[in-house]
Design brief:
Blueprint: E1 4-5, E2 8-12, H1 22-42, H2 52-64, E3 70-71, H3 72-79, H4 87-99, E4 104-107, E5 126-129, H5 131-136, E6 144-147, E7 154-158, H6 165-169, E8 171-174, E9 179-182, H7 187-198, E10 214-216, E11 229-232, E12 234-239, E13 242-247, H8 254-266, E14 272-277, E15 285-289, H9 295-305, E16 309-312, E17 317-320, E18 323-326, H10 329-370, H11 373-376, H12 383-394, H13 407-414, H14 418-422, H15 426-448, H16 450-465, E19 474-475, H17 483-486, E20 491-496, E21 501-503, E22 510-515, E23 520-525, E24 529-534, E25 539-540, E26 545-551, E27 559-565, E28 572-578, E29 588-589, E30 598-605, E31 609-617, E32 627-631, E33 637-639, E34 645-648, E35 652-663, E36 668-673, E37 678-680, E38 686-691, E39 697-701, E40 705-709, E41 722-727, E42 734-740, E43 745-751, E44 761-763, E45 772-777, E46 783-790, E47 793-800, H18 801-804, E48 807-808, E49 815-816, E50 821-827, H19 833-842, H20 854-859
Parallel strand pairs: 10-19, 28-33, 43-48
Antiparallel strand pairs: 1-2, 3-5, 4-5, 6-7, 8-9, 10-11, 11-16, 12-13, 13-15, 14-15, 17-18, 20-21, 20-22, 21-25, 23-24, 23-26, 24-29, 27-28, 27-30, 28-34, 31-32, 31-35, 36-37, 36-38, 39-40, 39-41, 40-44, 42-43, 42-45, 43-49, 46-47, 46-50
Helix pairs in contact: 2-3, 3-4, 7-10, 7-16, 10-15
């Protein structure tokens, strides 16, 4: 019931009905705060790609701009007239803009994003707007203005940006309830993408980072939520004991990267001796390996356990019409391109109006002077009479103007000085009007062909500012690195077989092998049980252990041979099986499950070997033959759950090895996937062949080195530096053509590889820094086509390399391929065996037109 109002007795007080609960006030306040953070601090506007603080800084710098550098402290003070959040936030934002090296030219120590070093104090560093910023960011005529926070100044709502700045610089911000993370993209590629948009084509832009490195964008998802980018440092192998990190991943610094490497070494994930930061103009972190460590395995371990590889989750969120909107980067580029086209249209329309006004007044001035209208006003006694007289004198000429002549136009005529009238030159006036008309005609043409005008605008930007802004991040496809495979052996595995314990803390018991603290351990017991457990200090896995080893999931080469007695029937069974995948700490029965079953014989064979064993029956057995042999190769390899085949129904006393077996699995089919530079057995890439234990791979590098390696799947190859890779055959002759940097000529040589050292590079061309391997082949009859320059003419010659030069030592220099200048070497694809057989049957002679490998032709580099 309402109470009486004490100020007006007799009236009821209804204010209680207008009261707001405290919870409602909190809700409104929180929403207001969330909206403020989203719109005014964290998320950029799509129109210019700037947060408010950045926009206010650029506006303040434009007001201060006189072509000279200004102290950043002064810029901060000027910006505070528009940004009410203190000098610290403004200073940080200026440094961030300056380090992106696009809108602001800097002077002084502005820090280094690569090392994480901060900038000098604001009173020591200077900045000014770049020429690029002055050209694409500002135009007062097309800017929408608003009052500053205190009402004393006006500031832009958004700047008229004629460039996709948001995508070029990238942005990151955390608001209330949402965040944004747009990765930086390449300057030149954005302009080319905008041109494609104007041509009506769909773009596909990818990020580019100032820190360089390598990146896998296969899951980029156009920068939207749910996407992922993997970025890796560029690691080079200086020698077998030293690695060099040349580029670092985006978002890291050399200091943070070194810290992550040291931590991984302290945890035993990698084994290194020393890390040295040699970063100066270019990034260089030197990693010295511990003795006995493989460079290839260490590189993989660096990617797996340190910040040498990081994963970035983009989330493109922008402000459109004062609301946060999630878009793809390609949609943002299309929006910015359309906006640029619209701004260019507005600028042309403004320029059109200016030119038409200039033409109108120039015509009025000419008419006013040439027709001596100014003399008619000499006798006028009032201002109104002057205006009326001039207006009356212009009546015959008014139809030629595009708009009505106003009083203001007539007033401007009266302001013409007598000196100008006396020196008026009709020819100069006509010439000026002609130039204005030509410019107006061009503006009208551009308005009618606005798309072409916008394309030319972007092309001029690219030509003017694109130099030195080429892509820095290499686009690659990464292979998945198994952490358990590349982890350094930082632990030792021990076993107590009788008591049933395994672990790295049982140092008084039997040593099994070196392992990693990430490894799983597989255990086989005498009762026919198998269990896989994670390595620990000490863990109980069951008594009477017969075999323990590191478990490699999915290893199809590991085959177990086993003979066991079935507890129910008393028969001795034999089986060959694999253990490809299991549930950790779950016991698996390898027998038929009968109580009392017991393993007689067990071997683990890493390459599917099948041995021959001798079986001894008990003396009381009724069998006539009490000793006989059995060959495990007669058994088929099955799963772990198979019961096996009957070896004998009589009781067995013991089973002994008679003869070591050979692999029954044959060799491994090894493939080379050039996109990731790795070997595999998954049929990805080019088939190198079937490999057995002692087989090797030969690699030929573009710098003229060759190297022999094994076929371990952990080997790494850099595709960009490799000219050819294949299975090594010591009987095959190597035919090579290289460019000799000293004599500036192409040399040809043929040789056999005589060295046998693994993972050691041997250079077989001249050591001049400009020398380069152009062609290499192990075909029996290698042929090439050479494009030769003779004076002003060019001709093509074909060469049979096996006919040009004899086989010599690998250190021989070789012979000149031609006395004339060679422009290009093009390999000729060798004939297939089917073609040769068909030619032999038809009696075709030796003069045959060979097919040209078009792909190889396109891949050849023009040296001149």
């Amino acid at each position: 019931m309402n109470e009486e109002n004490p100020l007006n007795p007799g009236e009821r007080d209804d204010s209680l009905h207008d009261s707001i609960p405290v919870t409602g006030m909190y809700k409104d306040w929180f929403l207001d705060y969330a909206s403020y953070v989203i719109l005014e601090r964290a998320v950029p506007a799509i129109e210019d790609g700037l947060k408010p603080v950045q926009r206010r800084i650029l506006h303040a710098m434009k007001e201060m701009d006189d072509g000279r550098f200004n102290k950043v402290a002064n810029i901060i003070g000027q910006s505070m007239q528009y940004h009410p959040h203190g000098d610290a936030s403004i200073g940080d934002a200026i440094v961030n803009l300056g380090q992106k090296d696009l809108l602001i030219e800097t002077q002084g120590n502005w820090g280094d994003v690569r090392t994480g070093d901060g900038s000098a104090a604001a009173r020591y560093i200077e900045a000014r707007l770049s020429k690029f910023a002055l050209e694409v960011v500002f135009n007062p005529q097309t800017t929408e203005w608003q009052l500053s926070y205190d009402g004393r100044k006006r500031e832009p709502v958004t700047l008229p940006m004629k460039f996709p700045l948001l995508l070029a610089q990238g942005v990151e911000g955390i608001a209330v309830g949402l965040s944004t993370k747009i990765l930086p993209h390449n300057f030149c590629e954005l302009i080319e993408g905008s041109i494609q948009v104007l041509k009506g084509k769909r773009t596909h832009i990818l990020p580019d980072f100032a820190t360089g490195g390598q990146a896998d964008f296969s899951e980029y998802n156009e920068g939207q939520r749910g996407g992922r980018v993997k970025v890796r440092a560029r690691i080079e192998e200086a020698d077998n004991k030293t690695l060099l990190i040349k580029d670092i991943p985006y978002g890291t610094t050399t200091n943070s990267l070194i810290d992550s490497i040291i931590k991984a070494n302290d945890k035993g994930k990698i084994k290194i001796k020393k890390v040295v930061d040699n970063t100066a103009k270019d990034v260089e972190i030197q990693i010295q390996l511990a003795p006995g460590q493989s460079p290839d395995m260490t590189i993989d371990a660096l990617y797996a356990f340190t910040d040498c590889e990081i994963s970035i989750s983009p989330n493109a969120c922008v402000i459109i019409d004062e609301k946060p909107v999630f878009l793809s980067v390609n949609d943002i580029l299309a929006y910015n391109t359309d906006q640029t086209k619209s701004l260019l249209n507005r600028e042309l329309e403004i320029r059109k109006g200016e030119l038409m006004e200039k033409l109108l007044f120039s015509s009025l001035e000419k008419i006013f002077i040439e027709n001596r209208i100014y003399r008619d006003i000499e006798e006028c006694e009032t201002w109104e009479a002057v205006i009326e007289t001039i207006d009356r004198g212009l009546i015959p000429f008014k139809p030629q103007f595009y708009r009505e002549i106003t009083k203001d136009d007539i007033i401007r005529l009266t302001e013409i000085k007598i000196k100008r009238i006396s020196k008026f030159d009709t020819f100069k006036a006509d010439e000026l009007m002609r130039k204005l008309q030509e410019e107006l005609d061009q503006v009208l043409h551009d308005l009618d062909h606005l798309t072409d005008y916008a394309i030319n605008y972007y092309k001029k930007l690219l030509e003017k500012y694109g130099k030195g802004r080429e892509r820095k991040t290499e686009i690659r496809t990464f292979d998945n690195i198994e952490a358990t495979v590349v982890a350094a052996n930082n632990a030792k595995l021990y076993v107590n077989r009788s008591d049933g314990f395994i672990g790295h803390g049982l140092k008084k018991d039997e040593f099994v092998c070196d392992c990693s603290d990430l490894d799983d351990i597989i255990v086989f017991r005498r009762d026919g049980q198998c269990v896989v457990s994670r390595i620990q200090d000490k863990v109980f896995v069951g008594k009477d252990i017969i075999h323990v080893a590191v478990f490699r999931k999915g290893d199809e080469r590991m085959v177990y041979n086993m003979a066991y007695v079935d507890g129910k029937s008393g028969r001795t069974m034999v089986k060959r099986f694999q253990v490809l995948s299991v549930t950790r700490d779950r016991e698996y029965d390898l027998t038929k499950g009968s109580k009392g079953s017991k393993v007689h014989y067990f071997t683990a064979n890493p390459n599917g070997e099948a041995e021959i064993v001798t079986i001894y029956l008990t003396q009381g057995a009724k069998a006539r033959v009490k000793v006989f042999d059995f060959d495990f190769s007669t058994l088929e390899i099955k799963g772990r759950g198979a019961g096996g085949n009957i070896l004998t129904k009589y009781p067995v006393r013991k089973i002994q090895l008679k003869m070591e077996g050979v692999s029954t699995l044959g060799g491994l089919d090894i493939y080379y996937d050039r996109s990731v530079g790795r070997l595999n057995t998954d049929e990805r890439g080019k088939l190198l062949g079937n490999f057995l234990g002692d087989d090797r791979i030969v690699v030929f590098y573009k710098n003229g080195d060759y190297e022999l390696t094994n076929f371990e799947l952990t080997n790494r190859f850099e595709p960009e530096s490799i000219l050819h890779l294949e299975k090594f055959d010591p009987q095959k002759v190597i035919s090579a053509i290289y460019f000799d940097g000293g004599s500036k000529s192409f040399m040809v040589k043929r040789f056999l590889i005589e060295t046998s050292s693994l993972n050691k590079k041997f250079n077989f061309i001249t050591d001049h820094r400009q020398s380069k391997l152009e062609f290499v082949s192990t075909d029996n009859q290698p042929q090439v086509k050479a494009l030769i320059k003779k004076g002003k003419e060019r001709e093509e010659n074909e060469y049979d390399l096996d006919m040009l030069i004899d086989v010599k030592g690998w250190k021989a220099i070789g012979n000149k391929l031609s006395a004339h200048e060679i422009v290009k070497i093009i390999p000729i694809e060798p004939r297939k065996e089917e073609e040769k057989k068909e030619e032999d049957e038809l009696g075709v002679g030796s003069t045959v037109d060979f097919k040209i490998n078009k792909e190889d032709d396109e891949d050849q580099m023009n040296l001149f």
